[in-house]
Amino acid sequence: MLDDRKLDVLRAIVEDYVATHEPVGSKTLVDRHNLGVSPATVRNDMAALEEEGYITQPHTSAGRIPTDAGYRLFVDKLSTVKTLSPAEKKAITSFLAGAVDLDDVVRRTVRLLAQITRQVAIVQYPSLNRSSVRHIEVVTMTPRRLLLVLITSTGRVEQRIVEQTNDVDEQLIADLRSRLNTALAGQRLTEATTSLAAVTDLFAPADRPLVAAIVTTLLETFTDEVGEQRIAVGGAANLTRYGDDFERNVKPVLEALEEHVILLKLLGEATNPQTLTVRIGHENPFEELATTSVVATGYGSKSEALATLGIVGPTHMDYPSTMGAVRAVARYVSQILADS
Amino acid sequence: MLDDRKLDVLRAIVEDYVATHEPVGSKTLVDRHNLGVSPATVRNDMAALEEEGYITQPHTSAGRIPTDAGYRLFVDKLSTVKTLSPAEKKAITSFLAGAVDLDDVVRRTVRLLAQITRQVAIVQYPSLNRSSVRHIEVVTMTPRRLLLVLITSTGRVEQRIVEQTNDVDEQLIADLRSRLNTALAGQRLTEATTSLAAVTDLFAPADRPLVAAIVTTLLETFTDEVGEQRIAVGGAANLTRYGDDFERNVKPVLEALEEHVILLKLLGEATNPQTLTVRIGHENPFEELATTSVVATGYGSKSEALATLGIVGPTHMDYPSTMGAVRAVARYVSQILADS
DNA sequence: ACTGGCACTCGGTTCAGCTGAGTGCCAAGG
DNA sequence: CCTTGGCACTCAGCTGAACCGAGTGCCAGT
C-alpha cells in the first residue's frame, strides 16, 4: 500500500512541519526537499497517506500536517536517533561532573536536559526501593529529640525527627546505632524491612519503647518514600517558544507539571538507558495532554534502571534530536551515579 | 489636592479593575460602587487622578486603569490587609503540621501559598548563614570515601563526599567527629569558620592531610551555600488564569522562575514576618517583569528572619487578600519551624 | 505511472462603515 | 465653589464585503 516514495513524502512532511509549524503543501514540499517528482504526484501520495490516517488537513484549502499515527510511523521507521556532537558530549560530562551531591546531580541534569532539548525536562530521583542502606545515623539533638539520617547507596539522604517523652540514654543510642548498621548495611530497602523487625528483639524490654519508636520511623522512611516519589522539573519557559496553537494549550501542561503523580504516570515505567519510550499525543494517558509528547528513558546502571528521566513537549517536536539528547543525558547521568 | 472622595474613586477603580481586568469608566463606576455623586463628577476626579499619575487611559475612548503609582497608593493608604478566616487558618496549620522534614515543610508551604493566593509561590530555604551547627557526622562509605553530613539548627541537612587516596583510619575519624562537634556545635555557620580552622592543629602532623581535606570541604559547605541559596517554586499554572495581556507576558515570568538568582533578587532582603514587602510593576529590578508584582515577607523567628517567601503575580492582583495570605503563611511556617 | 492544466475551496487579510463606551468641556443650578 | 446634565467628539473593536492565494482533486495526455 505504502511504497517507499510515499514514506519519503511522509518523512518530508514531518520534517517540514516540525521545522515550520505550518501545514505543508505539495508545492513547497517538492521545492524544499528534492523528491524528483512533480507536485501532482506528491498530491496523489498525500491523498493515500491521508487515507491511511498518517496525515490530515486542518481545513480544505490548507496543506497537510502529520497525525499522531504519522509521527509514530516516523519515529518507528523513518528516522534514526541523532547522536550528539563530541563537543556536546563533553559539555554534558563536564557539567554533570561538577555536581556536589545527589540533589545537585538531579538539579544539574534537569537543567541540562531542558537546555539541550529546549523542552520541559523531568527527572525522577533515584527511587529508594531499588537502592540499599549505606549508613544509618542516630543523632541526639536535644535529650528528648533524635534525628535519624538514612543514607542510601545512591547517595540520597533522608532525615526524620523522633520525639521522646523521657531523656534518652546516650549509651543506648550508640548501641542502637551500631546494631542498626550491622543489621541493615548493604541491604535493599525492600528487604531491610524484615531485618529491621528483628532488631527490636536484641534489646532489653525496658529499652524497647525507644527502640520501637525509632524502628517504626525507619520503617516508614523505607516504605513511605516508595510511593511519594520525588521529581524535579525544569525548563517550563520553553513552552512559550511556539507562536503556535500549542502555546494556547500551555495551561494543562503547566498544571500537569505541578502534579508529581501525573508526571510519574507520564514518565511511565523505568526502562534501561538503551530503550527510549516515546508517547505521542493521545498515546499518553491524559486527555488534556493530547497535543504533547513525552520522550523518556530510565537511568541508573546499565542493566537495571533506578529511575526515569525525560522531556515533555509539543507533538511536533524534533524527535530524532530530542531522543538523542535524552538518551545521551541518561547515559551520562548513569555513569556519574555509578562512579559516586 | 486629593480630597477623600478622589481617593475613594481611586480605591473603587483599583477594586473594579482587579475584579474585571477591564478599563473602568465613570458610569460603570458609579453604578457598581455607590459613590453618591454623578458620573460627571467622577470624571472630574478621574482627570485629577490622571493628572497626578495614579491612573491612565490605554487609549482616548476607553476607561481608566491604575498605574503602578495608583496601586502603590492603594496598597499604602487605601486598603487594609485582609485577615484569613478561622477555617483557612486551621487548614494552614494542619496542612503544615503534617510535614515530615524540612524539605517537606518547604514543599508544603509552596503548595499552600500557591493554592491560597492562586499565584506563583516562591519559598526560600532557611539560609545557612543565619543558622548554627547542630551536628556534624563523618561516615566512611568505603575505606577511601567519606561522607560528611552537616545538620543545622533549622533542620537543614547538607552532604558532601570526600575522596581520599589512602585508606582512612576509623579511629581517627571517630576522633575527628567528636572534636568537630565539640568545637562547632551550637555555633553560627558564619562564626564556625574560625573555630574550624583551629581544629586542624589538634591533630598529629601525619593525620593533617586528611583532616585538612575534611575541614576544607566543611568550610566550603558553610560558605558556598550562602551564595547558592536554594529556592522552591510552585503554582506556575496560575499564570494562565488571565484572559489577559498579562497572559501574553508569561514568558519572561517563566524564565525568571527558572533563574533562582533572579528570584532571590525579586524576593529581596528578608524582613521579619510582620513586615510585608510589596513591589509593584517596575518597582522590581527587572525590566521584563514590569507587569508583575511581588508580595514577600521573611519567616523564621519573630525577631529575626531566616529566609523569605512570597508570591509573584500580575500588577492587577488582589493585594489585600494576597498580602493577608502571605503574612499568614509566613507566620505559621515560622511557628512550625520554631517547634521542630 | 507520472504530469500539466484547470476549476474549485476557503482561511486570512484588507478596508470601509458603524457602534457605543467613554471622554472633556461648558453652562446652569445648588 | 462644587456638582450636574448636556453635548460634541474620539476611537477601539466589530461587521461584512471583496479579494487574494495557497492548496486541493480530478482529468486528460504522454
Automatic annotation (TrEMBL), chains A, B:
What Gene3D superfamilies has UniProt attached to this entry?
3.30.450.40, Heat-inducible transcription repressor hrca homolog, domain 3, Winged helix-like DNA-binding domain superfamily/Winged helix DNA-binding domain
| Superkingdom as given in the UniProt entry | Bacteria
Give UniProt keywords alphabetically: Repressor, Stress response, Transcription, Transcription regulation
Lyase: is it a keyword of this entry?
Answer: no
| Record's keyword annotation contains Chloroplast | no
The Gene Ontology terms for molecular function here are: DNA binding; DNA-binding transcription factor activity
Q: Where is the Heat-inducible transcription repressor HrcA C-terminal domain positioned along the sequence?
A: 103-323
State the Gene Ontology BP annotations.
Answer: negative regulation of DNA-templated transcription
Q: Name one Pfam family in it.
A: HTH_DeoR
What positions does the domain HTH deoR-type occupy?
Answer: 34-62
| Function, in words | Negative regulator of class I heat shock genes (grpE-dnaK-dnaJ and groELS operons). Prevents heat-shock induction of these operons.
HAMAP family, sorted: HrcA
- Family to which the UniProt record says this protein belongs: Belongs to the HrcA family.
* Cross-referenced PANTHER family: HEAT-INDUCIBLE TRANSCRIPTION REPRESSOR HRCA
What is the official name of this protein in its record?
A: Heat-inducible transcription repressor HrcA
